[in-house]
Amino acid sequence: MFLKELSERHGVSGDETKVRNFVREKLLEMGIKHFTDSMGNLFALKEGQRKNEDPGLMITAHMDEVGLMVSSVEKSGHLRFYKVGGIDERSLISKPVRIGKEGIPGVIGSKAIHLQKKGEREKALTVDELYIDIGAKNKEEAEKVVKPGDFVSFDTKAEIWGNVFKGKALDNRAGCAALLELLSRKHDCGFTAVFTVQEEIGMRGAKVAAYRVNPRIALVIETTAAADVAEVKEHDTATVLGKGPAFTLKDDSVITHPRLLERLIEVAEEEKRPYQFRRFLGNFTDAGAISQARGGTMTGVISTPCRYLHSSASLINLDDLRNLVEITGGFIRSVAGKGLV
Amino acid sequence: MNLHSFLQEISQKDGVSGYEDALGSFLAGAFSPLVDEVKKDNLGNCFFYKRGRGEDPPRVMLCAHMDEIGLMVTMMDEKGFLKFTSLGGFDPRTLPGQEVTLYGREPVYGLIGFKPAHLQKEKEKGKAVKMEDLFIDTGLPKEELREKVPVGTVAAIRRNFLSLQGECRAGKALDDRAGVAVLWQCATELARLRHRAEVFMVASVQEEVGTRGAVVSTFGIAPDLGIAIDVCHGSFPGAAEHEVSPLGKGPVITYGPNIHPRIAEKLHETAREYQLPVQKDFSPGPTGTDARAIQVSLEGVPAGLLSIPLRYMHTSVELLDLEDIRSAGRLLAYFIADLSRSFVEGLSCF
Is B162 in contact with A107 (Cβ distance < 8 A)? Predict the structure, then answer.
């Protein structure tokens, strides 16, 4: 799977070009027909081995990641910024970033501990108090290489630690990697794969993609928060690394279609693959937009559990991702011909 | 090797206070072609000695600490997450999401984990994270982790050295590998200068936990004068002007009770003579540098302090301008080349 390449590419919501180009390159190598729309969604038309078995299936994964956008350049040459999507502010401090198309390097510093007044350290630092430093001497020098509106993402190297994968943007490059893997395999029925844009700022790409594709069944491949860390009680863990992909029961945007959920469970049981339920019922994914497109779509979500989501570096278990691919493959086989009947 | 690659190399190497041995050995190798003798003492201080010419040479010590702030594992919880304490002063807010190398029975990588955002209670929002709420996540099963990372294991922050605009560079441990780079630059310059003085360059240990390396290295050398080379706060938006110095305007000469006034003056005169940029800084008490220990060693050793302006001190993205290091290295070399026995003897005459 191309997880390392996908994780290290920069693609903040609205600026998915580098990720899209990578995915497109792989689709070309696989000889799969594909096209884009006006928002930048990338559609791939996967043909099945058996014709006339088309159940109207769409499988999606969003390409975008949470990040920052330069809002202004200060006289001193430092850059102020906005958040793009729900980035975890706690993880911004003391991190390297890359800015704009050229990937200009910068760092997010913070006041040295020696200079802090009593009480200052008790408060969390907010985006208004932080800035990016590219080492420019002044505004003029900075504006030679960056400008307001430039997108910014973390500069984090992807690595494999045993069975765990460390990298940025695993939400949802893990999903993109899984979808590419599925596209490279043979399936009984065809399906439309969509690599969507702008999920992190409100499921915007998926909305128009679902309208265009008009599927009967949709499966969203996602990455979801695992809170299985120190001092969190078991009932608060949401998902746990290494216990298989997570099926969504409901979140703030969708209730998984009961027949689809049932089918995912059946497939996982039949194939003896581990799975878990996502035991945190908030937040949203592309499934929200897709389920309400046109006359409605039977929609569900399968996710890789991920620690430190929306921060500079996340962790997933590679077995969870492999099991997600196998269960999704089984799901495609199960809907060939008869759909969810 | 040029200054950029030397600083890159030593910034990316790890040497947490008390655990500087491997870094010291690397430095010994890097300095040996530039000096006459290389030595290590019992605490791990590294001495790079350069002979002087002529009779009764003055003995000058330059001291830059090689240690960096780091972490130490205090326990493993029942799920396999590591709790830690700090060696040196961290702002806990700079730690979430930092990557570390754990120097256990073998090196293990980890990530400083924190509570997921959706589990933060309303009253926790807006409050700073606390060190005791953070933990190191290696992703390893706990049986394996127990084997590899015992309690007491030291961890260093991981960070690749970054080339920013112009001559600006950012990375970890530039406090005070920048000072070590000044020593290297100075040794390079001295190779082509005649100097009467005997020069003892020291990459000192354990500065971050109380200038302990400087205490014993000053005893070991017993120099006629000692100059600490450290970092000072570089200017950044919102800083009080008197607390910071701009980057790229030269190294900073400190004045104040910790500093022998004639050393500060001579540094200044040398800078003027060779048209090297320098800045001034005033410190009302003992400085937080090796100069603090040097001054009150033995029967008293006249101390000086030269600093490289550096932003975001004690974070993993400390940022400086290479040109300031070059100027500092040259300044010290010219200062040394001009040192005489009469100057150092005069330092005791008030």
Answer: yes
